[in-house]
Amino acid sequence: MLEQIKLNLYFFWKTSWMTLLIFWLIYAGFVLFMLLITFSSDGGIEMMGVNTFPSMIFFVIFGVYFFRETFSNVIKFGITRMSYYVSLMIYIVLFSILMTTISQLFIKLIESLIELFNITNFTFTGIDLNMIENISQWEFILYEALIYILLFLLSLLFASIFYRFGLKVGFLTLLVFPLAFVFKDVAEIIFDALAYLLIGSEKYQAFYFLIPYLVLALLLLLLTKRLSVVDQVTYK
Amino acid sequence: MEIRTNHLTKKYRKEVALDDLSFQLSGDKIVGLLGKNGAGKTTLMRLLAGHFAQTNGEMLINQESPFNNYSLSKNICLIMESNNFHDKFTVKDILKISSKFYPYWDKEYAEELREVFRLKPKKKVKTLSKGMYSALGIIVGLASNSPITIFDEPYIGLDAAFRSTFYDLLLESYERNPRLIILSTHLIDEVSKLFEEVVILQEGTLLLHESVDDLANKHILLSGNKEEVEQFASNKNVIHETSMLGQKTVVLYDETITDPAGLKVSRASLQELFVYLTKEEVKRHARAN
């Protein structure tokens, strides 16, 4: 199993690094452009950038792409589904930590530039938004990583549903969540449950994330353990 | 390596791709897997490589199922006509990744083959022409040195000269490292000399599994005067017949002929035999027997 995990992680990284680089280059270019505009406006424009949200969107899209690009390829190399699954779980954590690290370094870089050029009309923050009090910087960093893991897992789960069952079942599953909000009682339960995962909420505890992680990971295991390499969306 | 299928069935929803297929392959040899389109060849090869599980029956390699079995599947390299590689990778990436995954990978040989097929290392897979994509598959298949190497029509888009190079390389690779090589092809005449055994599938069932020598010995092509040929061939297993200008030619299969009664005797090519054997009327005849 260890040999397969090493091979999988190698393949995963080969598949991801370029996408990761492109994302951060585009994003950095965009933020630097905004910074340049605010700097050249000489205080005429005020701007605020939130670093974490683009990364969250990245995770949602990347998860779908990642599953489609890695599953069939490593299975074709003879890797077992179980080792793919275990490697996936490890990679989710490692990749989320990496993204959080890059994200934090990026915030520091932009902050240094703001300080260097004495730009007062550009604010750049992470997930903390400077609005929630009594929470340390490390807790925010941990929270960012936890959110990334959750989104990556969720995205991989949906990707595997599409992969296994095709477009019809995939879109039906996607509809379940928004449709649940039509029913007031269900919506209340969902909001109540989400409060346990919302930093700043009284109910929040970091380890509550383990519950959705376990549920999503279990569903992912059930979906992948005998999954065919033939994708039911493209039939390739 | 020994491959055995017992009542192997694979269904894609309601469509039956393999139907109660039982046969056995063993030893180091080059086997031709033949059959018309939709006969179930690709499904069989993908089951061998563990791409998916069968619906019923058994697929065994050395008494074990290859599905989710790394100790077996790492020794199998299946090269299909398409969808072998992640198309965002470069040729160099594919060769490097393959070198990690295939335990018997020959790096120097892979590089040598890359030069033979004139593939640029920095070229991305998605920008390769059909022929160059096929060449990349051939390089990976041959350099993998996998104990079970399977090629499913690996030459799409390759010109005649490169196809010929592939056949030479395949034979050379086999001589250097004898193993079980399964080659599925429609260009039977081009490769028939490579095959030691032939497996012919038809509509998901086994139509024939013979050594090429037996196949050659089991058939006879008789030509002569129409009446004489018809008289001689009556009550015999005729798998093909043609008539022209009072002359007739018949192909008899699985018949012992000691005295051809003055008729002209010759042999058909493997490609011709395949065509005769897979014709609908022959299939019905075979089922009746």
From TrEMBL, chain A:
Keyword terms: Membrane, Transmembrane, Transmembrane helix
Keyword Cell inner membrane: no
Highest taxon above the source species: Bacteria
Transmembrane segments: 21-41, 47-67, 88-107, 140-163, 175-199, 205-223
Protein name, per record: ABC-2 type transport system permease protein
Membrane as UniProt keyword: yes
UniProtKB/TrEMBL annotation, chain B:
SMART domains: AAA
ABC transporter domain boundaries: 3-228
CDD domains: ABC_DR_subfamily_A
Matching InterPro entries: AAA+_ATPase (IPR003593), ABC_transporter-like_ATP-bd (IPR003439), ABC_Transporter_VariousFunc (IPR051782), P-loop_NTPase (IPR027417)
Residues forming coiled coils: none
GO MF assignments: ATP binding; ATP hydrolysis activity
Keywords noted in UniProt: ATP-binding, Nucleotide-binding, Transport
Pfam families per the UniProt record, alphabetical: ABC_tran
Ion transport listed as a keyword: no
PANTHER family on file: ABC TRANSPORTER ATP-BINDING PROTEIN ALBC-RELATED (PTHR42939:SF1)
Designated name of the protein: ABC-2 type transport system ATP-binding protein
Organism, as annotated: Gracilibacillus kekensis
Lineage of origin: Bacteria, Bacillati, Bacillota, Bacilli, Bacillales
